[in-house]
Amino acid sequence: MKEVRWPARLRLPRTRRGQRRLVQGLMVACVLALVPATWMRLEAGDRVGTTADAPVREVAVVFGAGLWNGRPTPYLAHRLDAAAELYRTGKVKVVLVTGDNSRVEYDEPDAMRTYLTGRGVPDERIVSDYAGFDSWDSCVRAKKIFGVDRAVLVSQGFHIHRAVTLCRSAGIDAYGVGVDEPRDSVWYYGGVRELAASGKAALDALFRPDPRFLGPEEPGVAEALATGAR
């Protein structure tokens, strides 16, 4: 059998000094990756809990988490279940669903709306943000476009600290509900992905850029609240 040779650029250092430098470099990279995520956990502090712990707020914000064949993925469905529970128990009056609708064939907010109405949330109490392309965009648009000042955020536990930190940086008094999930491969993938995403999130919180699409103010949340007050 022909011997497989690694390309020179992929070979591990042969000297002790080189190996030590490689290990040190990997350790520094790991620390740098953990710093933003650790900061966000500290920043969110005691503002994360369960649906039972959540304070009474007028608005819940549910972040998109993908579709399968036009329907919410299991993780997104669990977020929506938690939002429906918040509505049923009187913790919130309106649910703002924010997600990606950048393609005609992919519409997270409408799929989220359909799921919620099927769980007993009235259609007139649901508001759709079609330009929530990432967590920062969703938080900024909730504040600047929909006029949300205080909200309960709903996401998985590995993401909720980042969501709370970003929405607070955007000017929203936010409390996060972290939805429990089994420790399966998707959960571990989400945790690893969160380490990578936390670096960008830290920069967003620091420099506060405009979202990819801002647009004019929308009265959807105010109108939904007014409908509920009649």
From TrEMBL:
State if Ion transport is listed as a keyword. Answer: no
Record Pfam families: DUF218
Protein name in the entry: YdcF family protein
Where does the record place the DUF218 domain?
A: 59-174
Bilayer-crossing regions? 21-40
Q: Which UniProt keywords apply?
A: Membrane, Transmembrane, Transmembrane helix
The protein's organism comes out as Streptomyces filamentosus
- Key word Transmembrane helix present in the record? yes
Query: What is the organism lineage in this UniProt record?
Result: Bacteria, Bacillati, Actinomycetota, Actinomycetes, Kitasatosporales
